[in-house]
Design goal:
177 residues; mainly alpha; 3-stranded mixed beta sheet; globular
């Protein structure tokens, strides 16, 4: 079965097919069902019981040559909170773990997603060193970090704070010619 031009396969999906871990038909089905959800392909594989998140993480780490981290054992308090913008973290389901000189160590479920790595490299101005984490556990950590940021803002303002207000640009004055 040839790949559907409307369903481009990720580098991870292609590697799984090449290594005989997944059929092309299953890869296309999971990719289509996942849509544009971050880590959706990996989560779809797990939901359909084709590969667990743990097996996919191990495969990605071995295939792409990155270390694997059990993110559930990582201390949430030691997460690099100012490593990248929180909206970018939520959008791509990644977590900045540490900085070393001009390098950012980033937990991700799919280290083959160069678009995400490039966007974070551009936003942070740093080189990215991916570390592979299980997609389901990574999603839970991102959710906890987002909740804790929102809770901190609520405590500071004493009321419910609309996180979407942070996206709005401040009004600009008249520009001088």
């Amino acid at each position: 079965m040839a790949a559907n031009p409307q369903t481009p396969l990720s580098g991870l999906a292609r590697a799984l097919i090449q290594q005989g871990r997944l059929t092309e038909a299953d890869a296309i089905t999971c990719t289509g069902a996942a849509g544009s959800a971050p880590n959706g392909f990996i989560l779809e594989l797990a939901q359909r019981k084709l590969l667990s998140c743990r097996d996919t993480a191990r495969f990605a780490a071995e295939t792409f040559g990155y270390p694997m981290l059990d993110i559930s054992a990582f201390d949430q308090g030691s997460v690099l909170r100012d490593g990248i913008d929180r909206k970018l973290m939520s959008k791509h389901q990644v977590v900045p773990l540490a900085k070393r000189q001009n390098r950012l160590i980033l937990a991700t479920a799919d280290p083959s997603n160069m678009r995400v790595l490039d966007e974070i490299r551009f936003q942070s101005g740093m080189q990215i060193d991916p570390v592979v984490a299980e997609a389901d556990r990574l999603s839970k950590l991102v959710e906890k970090l987002s909740e804790s940021a929102e809770q901190t803002l609520k405590e500071l303002t004493g009321e419910d704070f609309d996180m979407d207000l942070l996206d709005q640009e401040a009004p600009t004055g008249d520009k001088e010619a």
